Amino acid sequence: MHRYRFLFSLQWVILTLVAIALIPTMIRLGFWQEHRYQERTARNDLVSTALHADPVPVERLTSPGHSITRTEKYRTVTATGTFDTGREVVVRRRTNADGEVGFHVLTPFVLTDGKVLLVNRGWIPANGAQTDFPKIPAPPAGRTTVTGRLKADETTAASGIKNVAGLPDRQVMLINSAEEARRLGASVLGGYVEQTAPAAKDGSPEQISDPGSEDAPLNYAYMIQWWLFAAAVPVGWWFLVRREIRDREEAAAEEQPEESEPATV
Which residue ranges traverse the bilayer (predicted)? Predict the structure, then answer.
């Protein structure tokens, strides 16, 4: 056992403790990535199911004060009514597919029964200072049927966007049906719709692309990677121990005096 006495030195005690601590840490990181993989896979399945479901009238899924659920989010809905451009607002600091900063156009859509649906008509460039109300292309006039993806009300907690007070007139930071109901003094359906039809024409707001899928396989790869790292730690520790033993034995052999040759007569 004297070969392993060096393991009790301060340097090797610290190295061993670090190795012992790394193993459960890496295992936990692997389980965390597994959890993220399962979350993203479940989210992708929900989104795919919602996007491929048949369109339904919007009031079948939401009503004033309703909170959009995970299974309702991204469902394709239809609504018939009239755009109220006189009371539309823009949502600040929103980007398009190319990463350009501009606004989302949020227009109240008055349904045939008088209730209001918030319709995000798409993205427009700022074309000037962010404090200026932009020039907004007009939507179809008169009675119109729109189609879009149902979305949940935006909150600071869910989006990370701070709801700043004192904004310029007709500008908001978040799309929230409860706040818009107070502003409009109307009965507003919970959530909002990202318009997908009628299709955008030249000069109209750039419609928002579908949410796509999150890269769940990447989390799966990270999970395997962390667990391989955890398995490699004891292997690496044992390799260092064997190398230390070899180096010490070679050094000891070099320090031993050579046997003197026998005298010749």
Answer: 220-240
CA pair distance 246, 234, nearest whole angstrom: 18
Contact 149, 210 (CB under 8 A): yes
- CB neighbour list of residue 98: distance below 8 Å, 6 or more residues apart: none
Question: 156 φ, ψ to 5°?
Answer: -65, -40
CB-based contact 223:33 (threshold 8 Å): yes
Structural tokens at position 57? 């009238």
Asked if 118 and 189 count as a contact pair (C-beta separation under 8 A), the reply is yes
Tell me which DSSP letter residue 131 carries. Answer: T
**The total number of residues written for the chain in this structure:** 265
pTM assigned to the model: 0.74
Taken in order 49, 53, 58, 63, the sign of the CA dihedral is negative
